[in-house]
Specification:
With 203 residues, the protein is an alpha/beta fold. The protein has helices spanning 36-49, 114-122, 134-154, 171-175, 183-193, 197-202; strands at 22-29, 55-60, 72-79, 97-102, 105-113. The structure holds zinc ion.
Length: 203
């Protein structure tokens, strides 16, 4: 059971009209230690994965008022320092992110573990590097965020054989430049959102 308050969120929902792009609100709650440049790059990287003409991602940042009119809304909390520095704790088997489930219902509430993602990337480092580049860290954060957004938007715990929805994302996966949503995942999103993503992409 997950108890979460929903102050003022219902005002963000809105019904779609024919011909509209579906607007997906993503509210980011980030720690003060997360550099603005990293947030900026994370947004840019995430939008690459959601580049469908029928969809629009509408970003809401920490402490900002939730201005309408989103068809769907996903709440995202980033945990840890999110500062690009090598985490003090060594990499251990730890979830990189998760989506809350209550009474077997997948909820649109996502948690991203910045330190676990950084630790995963550092397992590929043999040298004494103490910081990750903004681009590399943002790429990995965007992969995990996109994975959890798919769970939240499809209200499903399902995974795919390939792409971002693999059940386990390895350090190599997080660094893979060409990783993307597999066609089967895009099909699941089309069904869940009732929006023709592939057709629209081919126009
Ligand atoms: Zn998953």
């Amino acid at each position: 059971m997950v108890r979460i308050a929903l102050p003022g969120l219902l005002a963000c929902g809105m019904l779609m009209q024919a011909g509209d792009r579906m607007r997906i609100g993503v509210r980011l709650q980030t720690p003060p230690s997360m550099p603005p440049k990293l947030v900026e790059e994370l947004v840019r990287e995430t939008e690459r994965h959601w580049d469908f003409p029928a969809l629009e991602i509408h970003w809401h940042h920490s402490n900002a008022t939730c201005k309408g009119h989103d068809n769907r809304l996903v709440m995202v909390r980033f945990r840890g320092a999110c500062s690009s520095q090598r985490p003090a704790a060594p990499a251990i088997e730890k979830a990189l992110g998760h989506t809350h489930v209550s009474d077997d219902h997948v909820l649109p509430f996502v948690e991203i573990d910045c330190d676990a993602i950084a630790a995963s990337l550092f397992t590929r480092e043999r040298g004494s590097r103490t910081h990750l580049s903004v681009e590399r860290y943002a790429h990995a954060l965007a992969v995990v965020l996109t994975h959890e957004m798919v769970h939240a938007l499809t209200a499903s715990r399902s995974h795919a054989k390939s792409g971002i929805m693999r059940p386990v994302l390895t350090p190599d996966d997080l660094d893979e430049e060409s990783i993307s949503l597999a066609p089967e995942t895009i099909g699941d999103l089309e069904e869940a959102l009732a929006v023709p993503l592939v057709e629209a992409r081919q126009e």
